[in-house]
Amino acid sequence: MMRFQFDEKKGVEALTYIASMWDEITPFFAAKVLFFAEKYHLNRYARPIVGDTFIAMANGPVPSTIYDFTKGKLHQAGDPEAIVKALNVEATGVPRITALRKADMSALSPSDLECLDEAIEFCRDKGFGHLSTLTHQERAWLDAPANSAMDYELMIEGEFRDEVISDAQDFANYGVQ
C-alpha cells in the first residue's frame, strides 16, 4: 500500500484555503474536495498535496487527520494552536467550517492551488448523495475494506500510470512532498 507522510502545515493551509473559497463548507464536502485535489495532484505531479491517510467511510473517502482536526481532536497535532487560529468549526446543527484568516500561500505551491481550485469547482455544484456516489466509484474506495485506509496507488490512473506510480513511490519512500 502506498502511503505518504502527512504534512500538517500544508493540511491546515489547504483546509483554510478551501474554507476561504467555499464559505461555511461542511466537513463532508471539505473531505471530498481534499480527496479529488489529492487525486488530481497525484496523477499530474506524482505526489499528493497533504499526504493524509484517506479512510473508506460509508459516505466516501475521509482524510483521517484533517477530519479529526474538524472535530476538535487536536491531541496528535504538532501545532494545535495554529489550527485553532486558522479554522472554526461551528458544531451546532450541521458542522460548518470557516476560515479565521487567509491561507498562508507560501505553504501551497501553484500546482497545489491548481488542483484545489479544480476540486472545489468539481464538488461545489454536487449534492451530498451525488458526490458520495461518485466517490463510491473510485477504485481506491472500492478496494479498501470498510473504515480502513485507502491505497494512494489505486488513485493513479491513465496511460502513464506505471511511471507515475514509480515516481510517487519515490516521494512516498523519502517523505518528500
UniProtKB/TrEMBL annotation:
Residues 32-141 form the Antitoxin SocA-like Panacea domain. It comes from the Bacteria. This is Panacea domain-containing protein. It comes from Parasedimentitalea psychrophila.
